């Protein structure tokens, strides 16, 4: 039994790592939820864009390093600057690839949802093969490279906590607030929501709805890629990360309610804390590690039994 004096340390040991996981889950699931909620497109390749952002950020960190054995013509001595460039490049590449997918593949299939599912499932295998084929990436996992400014640990309620984890939490919260404000208070958000409700009326007002939808898809894809870029310096990169985090993203959006942005935030928080608590329980009691892996599915099952449409389902 845990002594009362140790409770703050125990709570911190579960809460802070749980919030870190929740931050990563939110960044990939928020984009998935936005795309489905605003466009009715269920993108099974969303995790692949998360993976692509991670690999692009990792590549910038490695190739721009003056000590890189490949002798890249452009080098940057500052590890912090390489990290920032990696985040920007990873996000932009993910947004560009997502926009290209929407324009060339998704747009002709808006009225054929089954075809959309089959297409995006096929893209998962395409991206997986692409990552394994590129010599600089390959089939092996790559270790995380943290920026020097975020390598220290901080003391919180008697426990050491990585500053990079705090960065992940702060970034996720900032994005959540910013996106909510854009969707609800800005002209762009109003245009997007109007286009979803009545695209013909918006077109009659001289607004190109197709371009708006491409922007939404690209933004959601870029958000997933940003999640992969920041995760690359936390967990590293590996070819299976797209499928792994795609599964978590679907669990999060199902728990929160398909298409609900607020639900994505709530679901990410719940799953992050549940996974961290189950990991701690397995470590302390010696239970099989499979219990920790199954905890997220168990939470989803309980939520759906109590509220079949998800926590924030409007129906």
UniProtKB/TrEMBL annotation:
Database matches in Pfam families: BPD_transp_2
Top-level lineage group: Bacteria
Alphabetized InterPro entries for the sequence: ABC_transp_permease (IPR001851), BCAA_transport_permease (IPR052157)
TM region(s), chain numbering: 14-37, 44-64, 84-105, 117-141, 161-183, 212-235, 247-274, 286-306
Entry annotated with the keyword Cell membrane: yes
Any one GO cellular component localisation term in the record: plasma membrane
Membrane topology (UniProt): Multi-pass membrane protein
Record GO biological process: amino acid transport
Keywords in alphabetical order: Amino-acid transport, Cell membrane, Membrane, Transmembrane, Transmembrane helix, Transport
UniProt GO MF annotations: transmembrane transporter activity
Location relative to the cell: Cell membrane
UniProt record similarity statement: Belongs to the binding-protein-dependent transport system permease family. LivHM subfamily.
Protein name: Inner-membrane translocator
């Amino acid at each position: 039994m845990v002594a009362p004096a140790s409770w703050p340390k125990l709570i911190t040991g579960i809460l802070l790592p749980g919030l870190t996981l929740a931050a990563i889950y939110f960044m990939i699931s928020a984009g998935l939820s936005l795309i489905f909620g605003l466009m009715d497109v269920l993108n099974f390749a969303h995790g692949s864009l998360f993976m692509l952002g991670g690999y692009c950020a990792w590549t910038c960190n490695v190739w721009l390093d003056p000590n890189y054995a490949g002798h890249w013509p452009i080098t940057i001595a500052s590890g912090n600057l390489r990290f920032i460039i990696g985040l920007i490049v990873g996000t932009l590449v993910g947004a560009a690839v997502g926009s290209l997918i929407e324009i060339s593949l998704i747009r002709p299939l808006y009225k054929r949802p089954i075809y959309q599912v089959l297409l995006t499932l096929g893209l998962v295998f395409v991206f997986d093969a692409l990552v394994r084929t590129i010599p600089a990436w390959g089939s092996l996992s790559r270790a995380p490279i943290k920026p020097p400014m975020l390598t220290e640990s901080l003391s919180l309620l008697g426990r050491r906590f990585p500053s990079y984890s705090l960065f992940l939490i702060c970034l996720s919260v900032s994005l959540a607030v910013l996106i909510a404000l854009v969707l609800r208070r800005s002209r762009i958000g109003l245009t997007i929501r109007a286009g979803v409700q009545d695209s013909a009326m918006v077109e009659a007002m001289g607004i190109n709805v197709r371009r708006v939808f491409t922007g939404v898809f690209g933004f959601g894809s870029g958000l997933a890629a940003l999640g992969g870029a920041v995760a690359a310096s936390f967990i590293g990169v590996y070819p299976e990360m797209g499928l792994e985090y795609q599964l978590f993203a679907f669990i999060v959006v199902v728990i929160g309610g398909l298409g609900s942005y607020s639900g994505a935030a709530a679901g990410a928080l719940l799953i992050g804390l549940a996974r961290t608590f189950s990991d701690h329980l397995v470590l302390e009691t010696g239970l099989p590690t499979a219990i920790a892996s199954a905890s997220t599915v168990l939470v989803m099952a309980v939520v759906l039994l109590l509220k079949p449409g998800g926590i924030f389902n409007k129906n």
